[in-house]
Amino acid sequence: MIERPRVVPSVSAAEIAPEVAGLSRRGLLRKGLSLGGLALLTGCDLSTHSGVDAALWAMLGFNDRVQAALFNPQRLAETYPASAITRPFRFNAYYPVWETRPVPDGWRLAVTGLVADKTPWTVERLRSLPQQAQITRHICIEGWSQIGQWSGVPLHLFLRRVGADLRARYVAFTCFDDYSTSIDMASALHPQTILALDFEQQPLTPEWGAPVRLRIPVKLGFKSAKNLESIVVTNTYPGGFWENQGYDWFSGV
Amino acid sequence: MRRPVDNAGRTRGEVVDQIAQGQVRRPAHPLPIRIMHWIGATAIICMFLSGWAIYNASPSLPFTFPRGLTLGGWLAAGIAWHISVMWVLFADGLAYIAYGIASKHFWPDLRPTGPRAVLRDLSDALRFRLAHRLGHYNAVQRLLYTAVILCLCLAVLTGLSIWKPVQLGWLTRLFGGYPLARNIHLGMMCCIVVFLAVHLALVAIYPRTLVSMVTSTGTEEAP
């Protein structure tokens, strides 16, 4: 029987109450109602300190709460036959493929934060855990998508193995290519969320995230961080490379 | 022989008499319709502009929209705008549908007519022989407004299906899977843009229709 993970809301209603109340004060709609105002609004891109940008950030927070409420921890992403795999598979990162970094010598996966066992993991030790394979759709935030095949250690199994506090809010990932991201605990415990070691039945090569990457089909593609170097279980909002610039944090699909 | 009657069951003669005697003072568009029209119009424009910012990140057609024609300017801000205004459009659309059913605005006011009436009114319209009567919808208008309401509903549903293709997987499968649902979403945008172009051109030809969508001064007109 699958143990039902306890879903902890990422944000409480009380925390965002001032922001939601501020929405009407800032008059997002009032400004939006005139076409003249529209011309001014086009400059709001989440990077300014204007009231409209503050309202947009508040709306992103509200949307994350809605998405967390819509998330069903048992609902599985659709899986596909091997014939549906997209070839050639598209490389994607915040840098071009030729800047892909090789795996550092003596690489270990660090596990820190609210966990009982902080021993770093080698690839061999990760391979000694039960493995799970999947052929799922990778959906990019830009709108394109492709079907790929990965296998590795289910993250829920790994988190239990290291004695993680499963009531913690966040699981954060940092990478040796200076990328980072974070997800909510409910999505981390989803049965299809895996620490992938193989891509198309071969050990990961650097451009596909060697030696281990996150593969999470219930989130947009940028959450499936490659080239991992550490996993942190925490109650402090960790943000991430794209999230800090304005990508919607929850980004569930 | 039955004499033709209007939506309120009045014959042509009765309507002419009522208007002549000042008995009919119904505004061309009731206040709730005018309010919902302008909130919806603003929301749809914002959805276009922010949607184009999202489209530009990975264009599926051989062109991109100029940055000045987008809301947000880049992908993340476009998404922030799109999923913020989404709630306004959703609430306005639900209120409009509820009102449209309750007030009989959809049926019989906007009820599409048969193809013969559409061809007749269209040919009259193209020869500038079709009188525009405030508060009444001719066969072409009925067809166009019904079509754009359906397009908007499909745009919202395909939008939801590509926002949540796993949680709302049944809806995504209904639209033939994620990539097809995304293309239908873009197709609906194109249809609504074409409608908007025709709509604005007709408003430019008959400016009093704009007045009647703002104030209550425009009243129902005799046939």
Question: How would you characterize this protein structure?
Answer:
The complex is a heterodimer of chains A (253) and B (223). By secondary structure, chain A is α+β, with helices and mostly antiparallel strands. Helices cover 25% and strands 20% of the residues of chain A. Chain A is globular, with a radius of gyration of 20 Å. By secondary structure, chain B is mainly alpha-helical. Chain B has one domain (12-214): Up-down Bundle (Fumarate Reductase Cytochrome B subunit), CATH 1.20.950. Chain B contains nine helices and no strands. Chain B starts with 11 loop residues before the first helix and ends in a 9-residue tail after the last helix. The chains are: A alpha+beta (253), B mainly alpha (223). Chains A and B meet through α2, α3 and α4 of A and α2, α3 and α8 of B.
CATH architecture of chain B: Up-down Bundle
Question: Runs of chain B with pLDDT <50, length 5+?
Answer: none
Radius of gyration of chain A: 20 Å
- Averaged pLDDT of chain A, please? 89
Q: Quick check: average pLDDT of chain B?
A: 87
Which percent range fits the helix content of chain B?
Answer: 55-70%
Q: What does the largest sheet of chain A look like?
A: 5 strands, antiparallel
| CATH hierarchy, class of the largest domain in chain A | Alpha Beta
Biggest sheet features of chain B: none
Fourth-tier CATH superfamily name of chain B: Transmembrane di-heme cytochromes, Chain C
The two chains with the largest interface, and their residue counts, are: A-B, 43 and 38 residues
Quaternary class: heterodimer
CATH superfamily of the largest domain in chain A: Oxidoreductase, molybdopterin-binding domain
Instruction: Tell me the Rg of chain B in angstroms.
Output: 20 Å
Q: Could you say what the CATH architecture of the largest domain in chain A is?
A: Alpha-Beta Complex
Total DSSP E strands of chain B: 0
What is the CATH topology assignment of chain B?
Answer: Fumarate Reductase Cytochrome B subunit
